[in-house]
Amino acid sequence: MQPVTLRTARLELSLPRGADVDAIYEACQDAGIQRYTPVPFPYERSHAEGFVERVPSDWDAGKNLTWAIHEGTALVGTIGVYRIDGLGNGEIGYWMAPASRGSGRLNEAANAVIDWSFAADGLDLIRLEWRAVVGNVAPARVARRLGFRYEGLMRLALANAKHRDDGWVAALLRTDERMPQPWPVLEG
């Protein structure tokens, strides 16, 4: 699959590039990114270089599609559709650099990715899944705002370099109304 660039009012989602290596490395020093995402630990500059080099071949394979989220020339995060199975299913994942959190950029980027994922001239998916480590509340609130429906708990299903955790799972169907949904794990 050829890489696709997506644009929103203030963001460009495109392949990460060599100029992003330092920003990716710096962002992945964040304790939250290291705790809640599957980045290597400790995260070294060579990991960022390898990530930037690997993304184009991941697009060629059509199973894991990652975009760098840029505002102007600054990298503010990454987002992707992963585990694309050829049967209409995929999984959205994302992280934002600490200085870029809480400004609506992630909602903006995620809506563009979701639109393209469900579009007939995009991935033409039927179901887009979301997963996170139990207790990772901020990304869960984003998923809820995007219209994802909470589906349950996956016991010890999420692993990274240091941890194996229970995970929350939610999904959005192409036919779902994309309005915030109640999630019992985020209530109260």
Automatic annotation (TrEMBL):
Domain N-acetyltransferase: 4-175
Molecular function per GO: protein N-terminal-serine acetyltransferase activity; protein-N-terminal-alanine acetyltransferase activity
Cellular component aspect of the GO annotation: cytoplasm
Signal sequence, renumbered to the chain: none
Gene3D superfamilies on file: 3.40.630.30
Transmembrane segments: none
Listed Pfam families: Acetyltransf_3
Superkingdom in the source lineage: Bacteria
Protein name: GNAT family N-acetyltransferase
